[in-house]
């Protein structure tokens, strides 16, 4: 399938209700409102096509950008490519669920994520922490350096209260993911989460919410989910 065929397919799959949900979460025009599950038949036809992914991502259309992440070839993407993608990721559903996910399947994932975490930019930092969540939830424990992840837990403990909203949320997710998916630091992550306690998230024009990493960790540990790993990261 070529660019025009994919765009026509996506447009035909768009639903007004889904579009409104995406808009309420920070998306803006152009977009069609395609449910992610509805994209799977098109993905099966294309599988991996990096050049097409680049064309689609460059449209600025949220649905096309999301689809680009599914068919991209992370192993063919350079640091410059990922930085270009994160530059165009204008809200968290792109930064954390498209760019970070795609990066997590790249051999340079940790290197790039580390730079984003240190960037000082909310969506970049959020994507960096999210990338580690995708990595830890999929890759074997021996692919990580325990001392490095331990230092990252210390960083979360020190910085989460003053972090910007999206980074705060991704840091909270990191605590949970380490506790559940990375056995060598499960106990430490749970202890840090307990020390941090509840984290309030305040948003303009929306109700405040509260994050409870420790509660969620304990619930899943009680269910025997310690060591959980996903078979796949992308759809």
TrEMBL record:
Q: Write the protein's name.
A: DNA alkylation repair protein
> Coiled coil: which residue ranges?
none
Please give the InterPro entries that the UniProt record associates with this protein: ARM-type_fold (IPR016024), DNA_alkylation (IPR014825)
Source domain of life is Bacteria
